[in-house]
Design a protein that fits this description.
The structure is a single chain. By secondary structure, this protein is α+β, with helices and mostly antiparallel strands. It has one domain (about 1-165): Aminopeptidase, CATH 3.40.630.30. It has helices spanning about 10-20, 25-35, 90-100, 115, 160-165, and strands at about 1-5, 40-50, 50-60, 60-65, 70-80, 105-110, 125, 130, 135-140, 155. The strands form two sheets. The chain has a seven-stranded mixed β-sheet, sandwiched between helices. Strands 4-10-8 form a three-stranded mixed β-sheet, with no helix packed on it. A hairpin with a 2-residue loop joins strand 2 and strand 3 (about 50-60). It is globular and about 50 Å long.
């Protein structure tokens, strides 16, 4: 398994993979819109035997008011349906966490299933988000306590591609 950045020639394949993984086009539209606007921090693929079998997009996420923290958001993350539960998603997640540590981000945020993401060290985020998710809005605090110790309430805002992809 090779984990690496996407190549321009793989845009269509990534779109197909995200559609297959989620059984709909919304997640693929998020990636397409974010890519068109230059709002992607990392677009990482899992390649096996020359085929793209997994993909994760990482994008900036804004805290309002600005409290000086460097945060990123994971999502969507998709794996070919017939290859799920084989550790591909885990490898993609670990790559994101490793890169975020190397680049000295303070926190990684995501909307997802707590039962899955707890094993990576994600916990319910101690701040609000524009989707009003509670338990599903999770944080991995690379700088320990950085979100817990905020002196004022913050709202996490995703890049516009998320809302726009849902409305189409």
């Amino acid at each position: 398994m090779n984990i690496r950045d996407e190549r321009r020639s793989e845009v269509l394949r990534i779109r197909e993979l995200q559609c297959a993984a989620f059984g709909r086009e919304v997640e693929a539209r998020i990636v397409d819109l974010a890519r068109q606007r230059g709002d992607i921090t990392w677009s990482i693929v899992a390649e096996h035997d020359g085929e793209i079998v997994g993909h994760v997009m990482v994008s900036p996420i804004r805290l309002e008011p600005n409290v000086g923290l460097r945060c990123i958001a994971i999502g969507p993350i998709g794996v070919e349906p017939h290859l799920q539960l084989r550790g591909i998603g885990t490898k993609l997640m670990n790559e994101v966490i490793d890169r975020a540590r190397e680049d000295e981000y303070d926190a990684i945020l995501l909307l997802g299933n707590p039962g899955y993401y707890h094993r990576f060290g994600f916990e319910t985020a101690p701040l609000r988000n524009e989707y009003e998710a509670v338990e599903e809005f999770m944080a991995f605090q690379l700088t320990p306590g950085c979100l817990d110790d905020l002196d004022r309430p913050c709202l996490a805002r995703y890049i516009p591609a998320f809302a726009e992809a849902e409305s189409r």
